[in-house]
Design goal:
The chain is mainly alpha-helical. It has two helices and no strands. The protein binds flavin-adenine dinucleotide. The site of flavin-adenine dinucleotide has 8 residues, from helix 2. Flavin-adenine dinucleotide (FAD) binds next to helix 2.
């Protein structure tokens, strides 16, 4: 437990000071003096990014395609979905490219 005004920027504290009484007028008891603020979201995706190259494969583990939130390429449902599509397309391109010499040899 601590004083949030020493941990957050002034504009955030100012916004909360303005918002809590407003909520308190809509939801009775929301802004009582013994209310406890239990968490503050600071960022929506992983702070550690798994680097990937132009082909979207991991730079140091070939064949691994880091994607989505855990690899730090998305911060929500939509961006995770879009990144998943991009990675699936890159994987498909890689499989087709690898199969090309086999197809040529068989022809
Ligand atoms: C409480 C909460 C509320 C949220 N609300 C919103 C919202 O309103 N709007 C919004 O846009 N985003 C929201 N998000 C964020 C959003 O849910 C994520 O950004 C998104 O789901 C990330 O998708 P993802 O596919 O990258 O990862 P995930 O959805 O986490 O998928 C990862 C998958 O990998 C599986 N997995 C993990 N380890 C292994 C393993 N070793 N082997 C096999 N499988 C494994 C997991 O079981 C999981 O199915 C919210 C997140 C939380 C936690």
């Amino acid at each position: 437990m601590g004083d949030l005004s020493s941990a957050l920027p002034g504009y955030a504290i100012e916004a909360m000071r303005e918002a809590f009484p407003a909520f308190g007028r809509k939801i009775r008891g929301f802004d009582t003096h013994d209310a406890v603020l239990t968490g503050v979201e600071t960022r929506t995706s992983s702070p550690v990014r798994m680097s990937r190259g132009d082909d979207l494969q991991s730079l140091n583990v070939r064949g691994l395609y880091p994607a989505g939130e855990g690899a730090s390429y998305a911060g929500g449902i939509l961006s995770a979905g879009v990144d998943g599509i991009k990675v699936a397309e890159a994987l498909a391109r890689s499989v087709l490219h690898d199969a090309e010499p086999l197809r040529a040899a068989a022809a």
